[in-house]
Amino acid sequence: MTNRNLSRLVRLLALPSLLLGASALLRAEEPVQAKPDARKAEFAASLPTEQAVLTAAPHVPPPIQRDHPARVVVNLEVREVVKRLADGVDYTFWTFGGEVPGLFIRVREGDLVEFHLSNHPTSKLPHNIDLHAVTGPGGGAASSFTAPGHSSVFSFQAINPGLYVYHCATAPVPVHVAAGMYGLILVEPRGGLPAVNKEYYVMQGEFYTAGAYGETGLQTFDMPKALDERPPYVVFNGSVGSMVGDKAITANVGETVRLFVGNGGPNLISSFHVIGEIFDRVYGEGGTIANQDNVQTTLVPAGGAAMVEFRVEVPGTYILVDHSLIRAFNKGALGMLKVNGEPDAIVYSGKEVDEVYLGDQSEAGSDAARREEALRAEREEVIAANPRIAEIDTEIQMERGKRIYFSSCFACHGQDGNGIPAVFPPLAKSDYLMADKDRAIKVVIKGLTGPVTVNGTTYNNAMPPQDLNDEQVADVLTFVMNSFGNTDGVVTPADVKRVRTAN
Amino acid sequence: MTSHRHLALLALVLVGAPVRATDGAERDQVLVPAGEFAPLLRSRDEPERVPVASFWMDVRPVTNAEFLAFVRAHPEWARSRARRLFVDSQYLAHWAGDFELGPAAPPDAPVVYVSWFAARAYAASWGARLPSIAEWERAAAVGISTDNARTDPAVAEVMAGWFSRPNEGPLPAVAGGAPNRLGVHDLFGLVWEWVEDFNTALVTGESRADTGLERNLFCGAGSVGTRDNTDYPAFMRAGFRSSLRAAYCVPNLGFRCVVTP
Question: Of A5, A28, A128, which has the smallest distance from its Cβ to B18's Cβ?
Answer without folding.
Answer: A5
